[in-house]
Amino acid sequence: MQKKILLTSFDTWLSEQLSNSSDDLLLELAKMACLPHDLIFLRRLPVDVQLASSRVIAKINELKPDYVICCGMAASRTQLSIEVVARILSVQSTDISSLDCAESFWQTTLQTTVNVEQLVEGTEVEISYDCGKFVCESLYYSGLAHLKPY
Asked: Which of 119, 2, 4 is nearest to 60 (CA)?
């Protein structure tokens, strides 16, 4: 039986960008007719945490996919990487005067349940433990939190 896989990509966010490599990747996958799975594309998500997260979560709820793969473009990277964890920083204190203190923030981390080492074995794909602090990581975190078993 075919697995249902939801794949997401982002729109561009800079005026000089002709395309987003995450979306380019999905376009190339769509051209491959021999893939043994049911691929569903949610392309060109807005580069906005709330909008992107709500669209992806709504699509997850609608489709109930077997897998979700969120693709993003890290401008500083030159090689495809697979992210293991997503982190968010949250304010621990409501005291505005203490917001510059490190103790006022705490970090929450979620990790994929996929065996990433096995997934990338024999490929040129890198494993990453830091997908940056842009919309990609926030979307990844939101998706993991939504899919996390209760």
From this structure: 4
pLDDT digits (tens, 9 = 90+) for 99-139: 454 554 557 889 998 898 998 899 888 888 887 777 888 89
- The CA-based dihedral angle spanning residues 123, 125, 127, 132, taken in that order and rounded to the nearest 10 degrees: -170
Domain ranges of the chain: 4-147
Q: Which two tokens stand for residue 29?
A: 């996958």
The three-class DSSP label of residue 27 is helix
CA distance 117 to 52: 28
pLDDT in tens, 14-60: 888 888 888 998 899 888 878 788 999 999 999 999 999 999 999 99
Assigned fold of 4-147: Aminopeptidase (3.40.630)
How many whole angstroms separate alpha carbon 45 and alpha carbon 59? 12
